[in-house]
Amino acid sequence: MFIPTDRINLEPSSDANPPMVDLREVDKFYQSPAGDYHALKSVDLQINAGEFVSIIGKSGSGKSTLLNMITGIDRPTTGEVYVHGSAIHDMNENQLAGWRGENLGIIFQFFQLLPALSLKQNVILPMDLAGKYGRRERRERAEHLLEIVGLEEHMHKLPSMVSGGQQQRAAMARALANDPPILIADEPTGNLDSKTAATLFDLFNQLVADGKTVIIVTHDSSLARHAHRTALIADGEIVNEYIAKALPTLTSQQLLLATHQLKPRTYEPGAMILTEGRNSDAFYVISKGTVDVILPRENQSDVVVVQLGPGKYFGEMEFFHERRSRASVRACPACPVEVLALDYDSLGAILNESEPTREALHLAADRHEDENVGMRKPKR
Question: Residue 347 to residues 71, 129, 159, 244, 254: CA-CA distances in angstroms?
Fold first, then answer.
């Protein structure tokens, strides 16, 4: 059974495991002599505990404003921001300062280490300010954190006496000083060479493995791929991550256009989405759950030839080949499925603006068509 998504409650989950970061319909306006500037436009973003997420976008796209919403440095004009269970949009500055010290570790692009303090003293400082741990424990913890990031031999040096990569690792140790559940890094590799940047990402992955939530903000798409999940922002809006994964050769503006035209649909477990031989009118991207692609075989029972999960797509064969379903597709029997439907007229208009995407999708359709023909032949 198909359930239109506009009939489903789309409010963020209130179950036992709410998102670590939850932005709900966030808008941000700035006043300027030329009038109001709409920096963030109805942004919904959920990041779960233990995720490694990159927020990517061009300069001026809204990355910094979005980051300021999460850290409480700035407030939404409208909308709500919940981080680690706290409604930070309702906090005053004193409350935010205390909350930030307990919950966030922030790594800045230009390190922001105090030049007159040693690396060890820089790491101890956040613990002093938060009044966390005893004096001896602070020293021991600072030494341990500097050892984790490979700076045990340099802990008594001033920042000016070590390299940029070493300063960035010291900044990471400082961000971890109060054991925050969330680590946020703003362009963390902007001043580092590729080898040092790779080392930094290894450290991020280790922190995620240890249960931390890591969010990096960058304009570099190649670095963003190191994260487990990417949120692309363009003109103050979040691009749908599943269409971005399905059609990676589209520009950010083309992806934003596609995002506006997607129609969410939900299917109950086992419900048929496409039926072979019937007309098809949409390209589908899976956003939750899995689907079974089913083919009939001569003188044999139907067979599930492949299962597709989030970020995968179907319906491209029909777009390029007579608009009739080439296989049946159903929601997996065990769980509901959410898909994003893009009607063929809209898909065609987008492909007309992106020849690389048209070519890639056409090649995929031809390949899948050949695979389907082969699967239908009875085995000898």
Answer: 37, 54, 53, 14, 11
Buried-state track 229-262, b at ≥16 Cβ within 10 A, e below 16: ebbbbbbbbbbbbbbbbbbeebebebbbbbbebb
Q: What is the mean pLDDT of residues 347-375?
A: 88
pLDDT band at 168 (very low <50, low <70, confident <90, very high): confident
Q: What is the pLDDT of residue 3?
A: 42
Other C-beta atoms lying within 10 Å of the C-beta of residue 345: 11
Q: Would you place residue 298 in the very low, low, confident or very high pLDDT band (cuts 50, 70, 90)?
A: low
Residue 300 predicted with pLDDT over 60:
yes
Task: Give the separation between CA 55 and CA 145, rounded to whole angstroms.
Answer: 26
CA 209 vs CA 50, 203, 206: distances in Å: 8, 10, 5
Instruction: Check if the beta carbon of residue 78 is closer than 8 Å to that of residue 27.
Output: yes
Using CA atoms, how far apart are residues 130 and 330, in angstroms rounded to an integer?
54
**Which amino acid, 112?**
Q
Q: What is the pLDDT of residue 111?
A: 81
Q: Are 37 and 15 in contact (CB under 8 A)?
A: no
Average pLDDT, the chain: 87
d(CA 283, CA 16): 35
**Beta carbons within 8 Å of 217's beta carbon, 6+ residues apart:** 54, 55, 56, 63, 64, 66, 67, 184, 185, 186, 187
Residue 106: count other Cβ atoms within 10 Å of its Cβ.
20
Does the pLDDT value for residue 374 go beyond 80? no
pLDDT band at 195 (very low <50, low <70, confident <90, very high): confident
Give backbone dihedrals phi and psi of 93, rounded to 5 degrees, phi first.
Answer: -65, -40
At what angle are helices 252-261 and 344-352 packed, to 10 degrees? 170
Q: What is the pTM of this model?
A: 0.81
Q: Give dist(CA 112, CA 164) in Å, integer.
A: 11
In one-letter notation, the amino acid at residue 117 is: L
Q: Specify whether the CB–CB gap between 307 and 291 falls below 8 A.
A: yes
Helix (H, G, I), strand (E, B) or coil at 254: helix
52 vs 39: CA distance, rounded Å: 25
Contact 91, 99 (CB under 8 A): yes
